[in-house]
Specification:
Radius of gyration: 20 Å
Strand content: over 45%
Distance between the termini: 41 Å
Largest sheet: 4 strands, antiparallel
CATH superfamily: Glycosyl hydrolase domain, family 43
CATH architecture: 5 Propeller
Order of helices and strands: HEEEEEEEEEEEEEEEEEEEE
CATH class: Mainly Beta
Number of strands: 20
Shape: globular
Helix content: under 10%
Length: 306
């Protein structure tokens, strides 16, 4: 091959590689964004629907089951409860008539179904507002038992915002969560950690690995594998404007190597607490949108991406 042909070939390879990198450095485009759930007036969930975790259960006449949590953070533990909703189209949701299914000290529920068993993870808080992550099990998706501590309390630290993910590429369960020292007087830290195990019942004894860390507010991780890329979403606070945004990272590996995408923030108007899911080869993100920051009024929305 002549020098000129080699140069042309290398140029084409470079252009092709750059195009592929460019494709991977952006988060998919939003094609739809709509309200899917809000709290009922004067009810236990009024103005406080904050997280929405969906599983394809195909049970009792509904394809999708979703567990939702409330905004309550530092209030009494009996304010923090977990609810259940059903859908066949991901848009129209019917709340379980006997909600809540978790009666107290439950924040940020996240669920996965494996071999017919529902595994529900959520954060609990003690009297000084430290938090830990627990797991409960259910055969019917409604009555949960066998509470297990997965990430224990640590003095002065938050272990919260769990997101459970079954990675089909390696048949391994990954529990992503936020760990931080946000209430420290100095040297504050916000980190994304992960535990992983082939057997979900062994997660408690597995080591913890750091995925991301920051000296400014960064929390609420969720992960999805889409277009041959792992995407990690986090919430970050623009302190200058008291505004929540959702930013994305991408990597070729599920538990390391994440870099910012170029089209951040992917949601920018007090949009936080995002959970990512792939259904029928399409990417969906549920997220909490704040209608009133000062009064902490939240509703649940969902975007569809391409």
């Amino acid at each position: 091959m002549g020098i000129k042909k080699i140069a042309i070939f290398l140029t084409l390879v470079f252009i092709g590689s750059s195009a592929l990198l460019g494709q991977k450095s952006t988060y998919p485009s939003i094609v739809d964004d709509q309200l899917i759930l809000q709290g009922d007036k004067c009810s236990w969930d009024a103005n406080t629907v904050h997280t929405f975790s969906i599983t394809e259960a195909n049970k009792d006449g509904y394809k999708y089951w979703a567990y939702y949590g409330l905004d309550y953070y530092e209030k009494d533990e009996h304010s923090r409860k977990g609810g259940l909703a059903f859908s066949n189209d991901l848009v129209n949701w019917i709340k379980y008539e006997y909600n809540p299914v978790i009666l107290s000290n439950c924040r940020w529920p996240t669920v996965v179904v494996s071999d017919g068993i529902f595994y529900l993870f959520y954060a609990e808080y003690n009297k000084v507002n430290d938090s830990q992550i627990v797991m409960m099990e259910s055969k019917n998706g409604i009555d949960f038992e066998n509470k297990t501590i997965i990430v224990p309390y640590a003095s002065g630290e938050q272990n919260q915002n769990p997101f459970i993910y079954l990675n089909k590429n390696d048949s391994t369960f990954y529990l992503f969560y936020y760990n931080g020292t946000e209430r420290a007087e100095k040297n504050k830290r916000w980190s994304v950690y992960v535990k992983k195990s082939k057997n979900i019942l062994d997660l408690a004894e597995k080591k913890t690995y750091e995925v991301l860390t920051s000296s400014t507010t960064l929390a609420a991780p969720s992960v999805a594998y889409y277009n041959n890329t792992y995407y990690l979403l986090v919430e970050e606070l623009e302190a200058s404007r008291d505004n929540w945004v959702t930013n994305a990272f991408q990597s070729d590996y599920i538990d390391r190597g994440y870099k910012h995408v170029t089209n951040n923030p992917i949601m920018h108007n007090n949009d936080a607490c995002a959970f990512q899911y792939i259904f029928d080869n399409k990417l969906y993100v549920t997220y909490s949108h704040c209608l009133n920051f000062n009064k902490s009024v939240w509703v649940m929305r969902m975007i569809k991406l391409k």
